[in-house]
Amino acid sequence: MKESRTLNFDDVLENTLGGFGRWQFLLYVAGGLLLFPCKLYIPIFLGFLPRYRCKVLECDLEPKVEFHPTWAEFAIPHLDNNYLHDGLGHCQRFSSNGTSCSKFNFDEHHMVPCSQSVYDDSMMKEPMVAFFDIGPCSSNDPNWWLGSWISQMAFIEIIFWTGVMIGILVCGRMGDRYGTRVVILTSQVTFTVGAIIAFTSMTYSSYVISSLLTGFGCMGSSTSPYVLVSEVMGKNHRHYLAFYQIFRVLGGFSYAWVASVLQNWRQFWLYALCVNLAVSPIWFWLHDSPRWLLSRGQFSQARKVLDFATKINGEPRLSANDFAALQEASRQQNASNRIHERMWTNYYVLRNLVVCLFIWLSVGLMYLGLSRISVTLGGNIYENFALFEGAELIGLVLSSTVASYMDCRTLIVWSLGSGSLALVLSFLIGHPMWTLALVVLGKTWASMSLQVIYVYTPAIFPTPIRNSALGLSSTAARLGALIGAWLINSKGIPIVLSLLIFAGIGLMACTLILAFLPKIQGSALPETLQDVKNLDRDLPVLGHLSIFDEVLPSGMDFEKESLLKNALSQEELLS
Q1: CA separation for the pair 324, 131 (Å, rounded)
Q2: From the CB of residue 216, how many other CB atoms can be counted at a distance below 10 Å?
Q3: 493 has a pLDDT exceeding 70
Q4: Whether 213 contacts 194, CB under 8 Å
Q5: Which top CATH class is 340-556?
Q6: DSSP 8-state symbol, 447
């Protein structure tokens, strides 16, 4: 019996379609446009906390309430100067025995808590925190069910990141089953509904609901394009993915400018909604990855996409014999992947996933944590944010340049380790100007790590679970962001100590990468478990101890996998 010829999809990308032609560039830009508004969703300006003080009802009379009134000296305790509090007691006031704003009615020896605040509007005219009055003092409200544990503002951020993590998990699973296009459209619709609710919110509860929906929707449409673009780029051109974040960085610069002009939380949401609606329609006529279509056995649709790709790239149409060989290779891979649910119990997959989760957590902690710090350092918050975006742009250019000749694993260790050491130095030196300079440098290295890890992660998981693996990893980054936000906003933890924690976790991640994860330079995207195992080379002994295959179920013995693959392939041919 004549053996059927097979053809690797990566060979088709490089030799027939062109590794990075007009078709790949079209998908590259279409996916990148979804990243443009991503910085709008992160609670930086939307969750900006201006300087605030305790509201004294008998003195703060409408319609004009001043942040620095003359009576503050006898009604509010004076604290040490601090950027947020500006030297005025923030959640306490002197008790009063009357209803008039007179010095003789206040007892300077007895203080009482307050649950309402007055906010300084010199930096932002209408912050969301002031509209709902949900600053830190709101935890003193007897009607707030979480009490002093979590403020109402912090609760909104927790709900947002919870929605992000749920969205990534669900969208990753959906992407593996239904394709990237369905995930993107679903996420865009969900975000649009949430943004409309946020823009029209008049109550705190409705805004909380909108935070959950927008969190769910925004990240599903920002992670899925990475998988799609990584699957259509040739293995010799995959380093271009490191420059993919340019769309997110440009969106960040625009956000800083728009926020400085609008200075109104409701108009921020209107801007985000308009940008989202502007970039969504392109995905109604774009298609899924042909690699994914082949892995799902949708050969006729894959053929149409490949014909479209060769036409756009100006290349000859894939011959019938070559497509038949591609189909045969896909059938054999699909026979192995029929049991892809059990792939998660394979040692190599599970090892890569566990280490990736910790790496993504450390990168998210450092990257998003430093983004939050940018608006708490004092001075002009818009200029600070733009400065940090400039640091990210430098990191982006460096990562895209170096990634063309350095393996992604090495680059992640180099950038994440350098960023961690910069933060350690900021802790040791302690001088404000040096701290700012080293924190900006740390943001540069952290952005490099983020760019490269998006390229690296899809390259160490097989096609049937690639969306889910990237989704789980990205969820860990958002968990890191949540931890970072808590550390930065905690009154009992100094900023410099938070930076030291960021650095310690980053250095731990570097050690795990070197010990357990493989290099990928010049490797094709893995399609099966055997492909994932074959990535292992030049690893320390701990990286591929055979004893783990005995202790941990492999999901499928590779020899048995090969036999079943051939049997199912023959069965499909006979049927």
Answers
A1: 63
A2: 25
A3: no
A4: yes
A5: mainly alpha
A6: H
